[in-house]
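Hi all, a correction to my earlier message: I attached the wrong file for Extracellular superoxide dismutase [Cu-Zn]. Here's the right sequence:
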Amino acid sequence: MPLKAVCVLNGEVKGTIFFEQSGTSVAITGALEGLRQGKHGFHIHEFGDFSRGCLSTGPHYNPDGNDHGAPDDSNAHAGDLGNIMAYSTGLAKVQIAARKITLVGDRSIIGRTLSITEFEDDLGRGKHDYSKTTGNSGNCIACAIIGVAREEYFAERLHLTTDE
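and the right structure:
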Protein backbone atom coordinates (compact mmCIF):
# COMPACT_ATOMS: atom_id res chain seq x y z
CA MET A 1 0.00 0.00 0.00
CA PRO A 2 1.48 3.37 -0.99
CA LEU A 3 2.28 5.95 1.67
CA LYS A 4 0.23 9.15 1.53
CA ALA A 5 0.93 12.69 2.70
CA VAL A 6 -0.95 15.98 2.69
CA CYS A 7 -0.19 19.69 2.81
CA VAL A 8 -2.95 22.17 3.73
CA LEU A 9 -2.52 25.86 2.92
CA ASN A 10 -4.78 28.28 4.82
CA GLY A 11 -3.56 31.81 4.08
CA GLU A 12 -4.52 34.13 1.23
CA VAL A 13 -3.63 31.17 -0.96
CA LYS A 14 -5.75 28.21 0.15
CA GLY A 15 -5.88 24.61 -0.88
CA THR A 16 -4.85 21.06 -0.27
CA ILE A 17 -2.04 19.19 -1.97
CA PHE A 18 -1.86 15.39 -1.78
CA PHE A 19 1.26 13.24 -2.14
CA GLU A 20 1.10 9.53 -2.94
CA GLN A 21 4.17 7.31 -3.27
CA SER A 22 3.84 4.45 -5.69
CA GLY A 23 6.91 2.73 -7.07
CA THR A 24 9.67 5.15 -7.99
CA SER A 25 7.61 8.34 -8.12
CA VAL A 26 5.44 10.53 -5.94
CA ALA A 27 2.16 11.71 -7.46
CA ILE A 28 1.41 15.28 -6.36
CA THR A 29 -2.20 16.37 -6.92
CA GLY A 30 -4.59 18.99 -5.64
CA ALA A 31 -5.88 22.49 -6.15
CA LEU A 32 -5.05 25.96 -4.87
CA GLU A 33 -7.09 29.16 -4.97
CA GLY A 34 -6.24 32.80 -4.40
CA LEU A 35 -3.33 33.02 -6.82
CA ARG A 36 -2.57 35.77 -9.33
CA GLN A 37 -3.17 34.57 -12.90
CA GLY A 38 -0.04 33.09 -14.45
CA LYS A 39 2.77 30.71 -13.55
CA HIS A 40 4.14 30.32 -10.03
CA GLY A 41 7.19 28.42 -8.82
CA PHE A 42 6.38 25.25 -6.84
CA HIS A 43 9.09 23.93 -4.50
CA ILE A 44 9.85 21.77 -1.50
CA HIS A 45 12.08 23.45 1.09
CA GLU A 46 14.57 21.85 3.46
CA PHE A 47 12.87 22.52 6.79
CA GLY A 48 9.43 22.46 8.37
CA ASP A 49 10.42 25.40 10.59
CA PHE A 50 7.78 28.15 10.75
CA SER A 51 9.42 30.24 13.49
CA ARG A 52 9.61 33.13 10.96
CA GLY A 53 6.91 31.95 8.59
CA CYS A 54 8.04 30.92 5.12
CA LEU A 55 11.36 32.72 5.66
CA SER A 56 12.60 30.04 8.08
CA THR A 57 11.97 27.04 5.83
CA GLY A 58 15.50 27.14 4.40
CA PRO A 59 16.63 26.60 0.82
CA HIS A 60 15.04 24.25 -1.68
CA TYR A 61 15.39 20.61 -0.64
CA ASN A 62 18.70 19.63 -2.24
CA PRO A 63 20.27 16.46 -0.79
CA ASP A 64 22.65 16.12 -3.77
CA GLY A 65 24.09 19.67 -3.72
CA ASN A 66 22.94 20.50 -7.26
CA ASP A 67 22.09 23.81 -8.92
CA HIS A 68 18.45 24.80 -9.38
CA GLY A 69 16.77 23.37 -12.46
CA ALA A 70 13.71 21.81 -14.06
CA PRO A 71 12.07 18.78 -12.44
CA ASP A 72 13.35 16.44 -15.17
CA ASP A 73 16.93 17.80 -15.16
CA SER A 74 19.22 15.10 -13.80
CA ASN A 75 21.25 17.62 -11.80
CA ALA A 76 18.49 19.82 -10.28
CA HIS A 77 17.40 20.18 -6.65
CA ALA A 78 15.17 17.31 -5.53
CA GLY A 79 12.70 19.98 -4.35
CA ASP A 80 12.43 21.70 -7.74
CA LEU A 81 8.90 20.90 -8.90
CA GLY A 82 8.65 23.46 -11.72
CA ASN A 83 5.66 25.76 -12.11
CA ILE A 84 1.94 25.63 -11.56
CA MET A 85 -0.49 27.66 -13.69
CA ALA A 86 -3.22 29.77 -12.12
CA TYR A 87 -6.24 30.65 -14.25
CA SER A 88 -7.96 34.04 -14.28
CA THR A 89 -10.19 32.75 -11.47
CA GLY A 90 -7.13 32.35 -9.21
CA LEU A 91 -7.46 28.54 -9.26
CA ALA A 92 -4.51 26.28 -10.03
CA LYS A 93 -4.81 22.53 -10.39
CA VAL A 94 -1.72 20.53 -9.53
CA GLN A 95 -0.75 17.25 -11.16
CA ILE A 96 2.94 16.35 -11.01
CA ALA A 97 4.89 13.07 -11.01
CA ALA A 98 8.07 13.70 -8.98
CA ARG A 99 10.90 11.20 -9.26
CA LYS A 100 13.58 12.76 -7.02
CA ILE A 101 11.64 12.67 -3.76
CA THR A 102 10.04 9.99 -1.62
CA LEU A 103 7.68 9.77 1.32
CA VAL A 104 9.92 7.26 3.13
CA GLY A 105 13.65 6.78 3.57
CA ASP A 106 16.59 9.11 3.02
CA ARG A 107 14.84 11.38 0.49
CA SER A 108 11.58 11.72 2.39
CA ILE A 109 9.78 15.06 2.20
CA ILE A 110 7.62 14.40 5.28
CA GLY A 111 8.12 17.29 7.70
CA ARG A 112 9.55 19.58 5.00
CA THR A 113 7.72 22.58 3.53
CA LEU A 114 5.89 23.04 0.24
CA SER A 115 6.08 26.61 -1.10
CA ILE A 116 4.50 28.61 -3.89
CA THR A 117 6.33 31.67 -5.19
CA GLU A 118 5.01 34.91 -6.65
CA PHE A 119 6.50 34.54 -10.14
CA GLU A 120 7.35 31.93 -12.74
CA ASP A 121 10.38 29.76 -12.01
CA ASP A 122 12.95 30.11 -14.81
CA LEU A 123 14.08 26.51 -14.14
CA GLY A 124 17.71 27.58 -13.74
CA ARG A 125 17.93 28.75 -17.34
CA GLY A 126 17.78 32.51 -16.75
CA LYS A 127 20.65 34.94 -16.61
CA HIS A 128 19.78 36.36 -13.17
CA ASP A 129 22.04 35.67 -10.19
CA TYR A 130 19.19 33.75 -8.49
CA SER A 131 18.47 31.47 -11.47
CA LYS A 132 20.82 28.72 -10.24
CA THR A 133 19.58 28.85 -6.62
CA THR A 134 15.86 29.70 -6.65
CA GLY A 135 14.81 29.94 -10.30
CA ASN A 136 14.46 33.70 -9.79
CA SER A 137 10.78 33.16 -8.97
CA GLY A 138 10.44 35.85 -6.32
CA ASN A 139 9.23 35.66 -2.76
CA CYS A 140 7.30 32.81 -1.25
CA ILE A 141 3.59 33.74 -1.15
CA ALA A 142 2.31 30.56 0.49
CA CYS A 143 3.79 27.63 2.35
CA ALA A 144 2.79 24.74 4.59
CA ILE A 145 4.37 21.67 6.15
CA ILE A 146 3.96 18.29 4.46
CA GLY A 147 2.63 15.66 6.87
CA VAL A 148 1.49 12.05 6.84
CA ALA A 149 -2.18 11.84 5.84
CA ARG A 150 -4.86 9.83 7.62
CA GLU A 151 -6.18 7.23 5.20
CA GLU A 152 -9.75 8.47 5.72
CA TYR A 153 -8.79 12.08 4.91
CA PHE A 154 -7.01 11.05 1.74
CA ALA A 155 -9.92 8.87 0.62
CA GLU A 156 -12.45 11.70 1.11
CA ARG A 157 -10.52 14.35 -0.82
CA LEU A 158 -12.53 16.46 -3.22
CA HIS A 159 -11.71 16.48 -6.89
CA LEU A 160 -11.80 20.16 -7.80
CA THR A 161 -12.46 21.22 -11.36
CA THR A 162 -12.31 24.46 -13.26
CA ASP A 163 -14.25 25.81 -16.21
CA GLU A 164 -11.11 27.13 -17.86
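Sorry for the mix-up. The domain at 4-155 is CATH 2.60.40.200 (Immunoglobulin-like).
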